[in-house]
Amino acid sequence: MKISYIKAMFVLDFESSIKWRALPTFFLRSILGAQLKRICCVQRQSTCDECSLSASCAYSVLFESPLDTANEVLQGRNRGYHPFILTHGAFLNDGFGYHFTVTLVGKGIHYFPFIVFAFQQAGSEGVFSSKIKYRISELTDQATGKSLQGINLKTPQTQIFSADQAKMDSFESVSVEFITPARIKHLGKYTLNFDAISFFSSIYRRTTALSRLYEESSLDEISTDEKFIVPEKIHIAARNLKWKDFSRYSQRQQTEMELGGIVGRFILAGGLRTSDSSLLEAGRLFHVGKNTVFGLGQMNFNNIKS
């Protein structure tokens, strides 16, 4: 399993202080989608399914990610995992600034200039009902620390995650933190009471699908329907978790919606193999669970030294 990716760090400077009601990444996802559709949609059909350009359109690929239901990766589904992730960063200067990261994977890397232009357009037009303007004061390549701004926009350095080549250590136990709400299913339901199998399987399904959907060389790899085998001895030894909800306004459904998940820490114990550690690294890079384009599922992990 291989995934090529780029990570670009943005700093937005607002002309007024913002009091955020929810994760700013919810808002960023909304303005990004609206701007990309305005910029890229040339045929003006009601849905991307009716458009002959959907396979190459930045809005369609990034936000709709259409699939033939006969596809071999996510059988029966007509939408794939989206090839971008928003990662919550930090609030700056008493609400006048905000830092976040955009990750693009595989074929999605091609659309980086569209994302930057979309955020620039939204900032120049103003956001929210009060039309508060902002500018991108910093745009940095996470891999090199170098600025991407200038006369010509630069693309971040492409990095490679490979489950086979990742030089990860084996650990006896690991502390995992969900920084933003993670939506993980166990026995068909989103719950705090997931087990190690559900946790690892969630990362495995997501990263394998991203690889097979957006990396040409991954088309012949193992089916995402197969489960990752977690040794019985690996278990959740302790957990300090809670469910956290955020409200967001859905333009499509014209209503407020709750979108939440699990935050907090838990401990995986029982001796993690290098392959398990590699999956944890994939979760750190590409998030875990559902709705990662909203900034959900951001996680980190640390070895617990005996």
Structural account:
By secondary structure, the protein is of the alpha+beta class. It has two domains: 2-160, no CATH class; 164-303, Alpha-Beta Plaits. The chain is built from five helices and eleven strands, in the order E-H-H-E-E-H-E-E-E-E-E-H-E-E-H-E. It has helices spanning 24-40, 58-64, 112-125, 196-214, 274-286; strands at 2-14, 84-92, 97-105, 134-141, 159-162, 171-182, 185-186, 189-190, 235-250, 255-272, 299-303. Strands 1, 2, 3, 4 and 5 form a five-stranded antiparallel β-sheet that branches. A hairpin with a 4-residue loop joins strand 9 and strand 10. Helix 1 packs antiparallel against helix 2 (58-64) and helix 1 crosses helix 3. The longest helix is centred in the C-terminal third of the chain and has 19 residues, at 196-214.
Question: In terms of topology, how is this protein built?
Answer:
Elements: E1 2-14, H1 24-40, H2 58-64, E2 84-92, E3 97-105, H3 112-125, E4 134-141, E5 159-162, E6 171-182, E7 185-186, E8 189-190, H4 196-214, E9 235-250, E10 255-272, H5 274-286, E11 299-303
Antiparallel strand pairs: 1-3, 1-4, 1-5, 2-3, 6-10, 6-11, 7-8, 9-10
Helix pairs in contact: 1-2, 1-3, 4-5
Strand content: 25-35%
Overall structural domain count: 2
**Low-pLDDT segments:** 222-226
Mean pLDDT: 88
**Distance linking N and C termini:** 31 Å
- Structural shape: globular
Cα-atom radius of gyration: 19 Å
- Which H/E pattern describes the elements? EHHEEHEEEEEHEEHE
Number of helices: 5
Main β sheet profile = 5 strands, antiparallel
Helix fraction bin: 10-25%
Instruction: Find the count of extended strands (DSSP E, 2+ residues).
Output: 11
Structural class: alpha+beta
